[in-house]
Amino acid sequence: MHAPSIFWVTNLAAPYRLPVWRHLAKRHELTIGLLESNARLQQDSDANRGSDWLHHDDQKVAFQELPTWKFRRGESRYYALASITSIGTIRNFDVVLFGGWESPAYWSLLAAAVVLRKGRVGFYESPSSTMTYASGFIAWLRKSFFRSMNVVVVPGRAAAEAVLGMGVDPSRIMQGFNAVDVNEFHSASLARMEDSGAADTHHRYLYVGQLIERKRVDAIVKAYAEIATTSDELTIVGTGAMREELIMADRRGASISFIGQVENREIPKIMARHQTLILASQQEVWGLVVNEALAAGMHVVVTDNCGVLPSVVGMRGVYVAKSSLVDLPEQLRNSRADWAGRIEKPEILQHTPERFAEVFEAAFAASVR
What we know:
Order of helices and strands: EHEHEEEHEHEHEHEHEHEHEHEHEHEHH
CATH topology of the largest domain: Rossmann fold
Distance between the termini: 11 Å
CATH class of the largest domain: Alpha Beta
Strand order of the largest sheet: 3-2-1-6-7-8-9
Number of strands: 15
Number of domains: 2
Structural class: alpha/beta
CATH architecture of the largest domain: 3-Layer(aba) Sandwich
Number of helices: 14
Strand content: 15-25%
């Protein structure tokens, strides 16, 4: 039997997903259907997305922008198909993978996939803790959407539990591990270790992400200022509505620098110069920056409500803070006190994009049986 052809529908060409797509494209006819266009993304200044989120012809993956109308609500973007020809696109494929469910566009394509008897694979990343609507009509819609899938792929235990809670049969759930290009981050850290001479006496903390209320960067600044010594540093990478407020915050003399938005390809080099990553979001579907930091041999301080935690807890260098943040300063201290150099062979290196791609391949095959 030939490898099924795949139409993967998603909002944006996320740069961290490219390694998975590239691996799949070697074995399948794969097209990434995008609900957001390059031109419109560049005009959406509130999206806090750099140029690395734009898709290009030289990325070894085929992309197709679907004409849509866009609706904005806070951080969220919703899409509706603006042309009926977009629905007809899926005639040319064996399997449709749905990278979301909230937008009307996904429902239109789902209806067409059912009528045309195409394989249907859902990709659900959120833990139960991030579900905005746990009951009522919206929750019913979400359950109906994923129950209509032949297979649902989830990136970790937290998302698997959420999908089970929707009533999806366990036999139709395939669990992988949400992956980034871990070797790229590890290689950058090894190069840094080789270039370093004398032992570094500074402990450098790092935050990478949007500067918005949900990320609670203000709480990170406060916790760091509480425990910082004269040889500590905190670097904040990213941009967003809270930038000016954070710059003006009381630092209590602590050393804090703001880099602003950087391209995704620059993050490995930045992580190679830091020791402890901090992620303290009020809600976090996953938090792939944790994968990246662990691959770079760093410590991570992550709150217990982040979707990534059940999949990395127990790995070396992981420090868990309560979602209330009451012990965030303590965990920052613990990481600093325990630091004995980079973790040379972190466990996260086992979880490559290629292994994650294999889970999707199994799902594609199962959806067309």
